[in-house]
Amino acid sequence: MTKRTLLYAALAVGAFLSVFPYLLVVLTAFKTRTQLNSTPPWLPAMPPTTANLAELLGGDFPHYIANTLLMTAALTAGQLVFTTFAAYAFARLRFRGREGLFWLYVATMMVPGAVTVIPLFLIMRQLGLVNTWWGLLLPYLLGTPYGIFLMRQFFRGLPASLEEAARIDGAGPLKILLRILLPLSRPALGTLAIITVISSWNNFLWPLIITSGDDTKVITVAIAGLKGGIGVDYNLMMAGGLIALVPMVAIFVFFQRYIIRSVVLTGLK
């Protein structure tokens, strides 16, 4: 009983430390500057105000939200399409150097993303894609090592007898993928889609470097831009953070089982 009590106490402390920053975002978003300076950060405003949210939503912020939605949708669609084809090739097709090429590609996950930012920017500048949608999307549109690894492991867990039966019936690789493997891979595809949506929505460093105009500005860069030349308007920044946070919290609440599935890959029961 004592061990269980200590365990739950430790879990409660960990949960509080994880949730407390988000609680501060919500509380600060509904405070005025006067209330922020006169009340402790962990206490709610009395009375709360929606002026910060109204100021953001009444300006260009909805346009930045639309840009983020467009970027997230394009990257998710590209990830699902190109990752699926690449993973199928690595899992089922036989060609020289398949295993070496796959593990070499997966090894790139060990390289920090910040290391490749400057080379990517130089490439985009040579192609004339700086501050364009193509420059924003191309580095992530054609799939990622993690996505290919996830789908490849799932495909390898499916029974090979299904493909053998399809080949006997005259089906080719493309038909096997589209008609047999993809319908069985809905859990893995859902997992990949959720992870891609979250990572795309929260992406900050690459959009900050490759874009400079309002036409391609996304919500993370817009929130960082709320910092004024004299000081930081924490009320507006927290209101922007709250707007960006709500969709991600909703996705996690409704699709958390798919996120857990990204760690524990399952095949057919």
Can you walk through the features of this model?
The protein has 269 residues and is mostly helical. The chain has two domains: 49 residues, no CATH class; 202 residues, MetI-like fold. It has 14 helices and no strands. Helix 4 runs antiparallel to helix 11 and helix 11 packs antiparallel against helix 14. The longest helix is centred in the N-terminal third of the chain and has 31 residues.
Gist?
72% of the residues lie in helices and 0% in strands.
List SSEs in N-to-C order: HHHHHHHHHHHHHH
Question: Alpha-carbon distance between the termini?
Answer: 37 Å
Low-confidence stretches: none
Rg over alpha carbons: 23 Å
The name of the CATH architecture of the largest domain is Orthogonal Bundle
Task: Supply the key terms.
269 residues; mainly alpha; 2 domains; 14 helices; 72% helix; 0% strand
Chart the SSEs and their pairings.
Elements: H1 2-29, H2 33-38, H3 51-57, H4 61-91, H5 98-106, H6 113-126, H7 133-141, H8 145-157, H9 160-168, H10 173-184, H11 186-201, H12 205-210, H13 219-224, H14 234-261
Helix pairs in contact: 1-14, 3-14, 4-7, 4-8, 4-11, 11-14
